[in-house]
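JOB MANIFEST
job_type = single_chain_structure
chain_count = 1
residues = 333
[input]
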Amino acid sequence: MMKTKRNISFISAILSVLLLSLSVCASAQDESATEPTDINIGIPVYSQYLHNGLIVNPAYAGTRGALSGFLSYRKQWIGIEGSPMTESISLHTPMKDEKVAIGLMAQFMQFGFTRSSNLYGSYAYHIKLEKGKLSFGLKAGFDMSNTNYNKLSYTDLSSAPPDPVFTSDDKPYFLPNAGVGVYYYNEEFFAGLTIPSFLTYQKSPSGKVSPGLSLGHNNFIVTAGGLISVSDLLKIKPSMLINYSLDKAEGISQFDINTNFIIADLVWLGAAYRISEQVMVGIAQLQVNSQLMIGLSYDYPVGRMQSYSNGSCEFVIRYDFGSKVSVSNPRYF
């Protein structure tokens, strides 16, 4: 009991120091900048996030009961030159007492002439309840981004030279950040709430980058889902994800409604509709054995992007090392 109290106090202390540090950063912004512009790295869109909750929520770390590795590749808006490409890798594991878990995640993105990457470490503390587990998570790390304007081509230089802003590489951005999350799950239900990043960044006309803390610009990601057992051979897993910003100009940037049909605990066939993008998603996943899962998804645009894009595809692999999960006791969340 005393150990649990010490761990909770430790988490509270970390969050208090973090919020205090962010407040100091916010007060240290460059007041001389007259018209600063926002730096928006963006949050990658994934269709198979349900099988790698660490991408969404740091509190997911350790919930699979073993060291779990995940690889993904996503090509968005096929057919459009310079469309986003995202690769990710993550590892997370519970520690010996299974109350504490740690994780590590890296993402690499390219869109147009911009390359960005990030690296985040996660810490989670799990509390066992009467009918499930409640996990609190904290992540910290950094984002990096760089735009190579030298690759731009100009069709007409006779009338006027190109804007100097686009004739040289943009200075790389190095943006430390942190986020928190809470995650609850049992055998039939899960729900999570995440603030993926606390800090926002702005660039002044002189090129100086300054951090800030503004609740009005934070994103909140809400996930929830359940498991309906139809028979021993068929289960249905409905779920949803909402990515909402308090910034009125952004609002809901992602809203997914998903349904997965789990056949004999081996084959997952699913469909989803991403309301914000007007995209239908088809998902097929195979649980090769108790440790290895592979999955493929295809996003088909049915709205404004239908005339320009051939859709998006995503491939994932998950492997649980020394997993406690078995055919007789599978993990659905």
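[summary]
The helical segments are 2-27.
The first strand starts at residue 37 and ends at 39.
exit_status = 0
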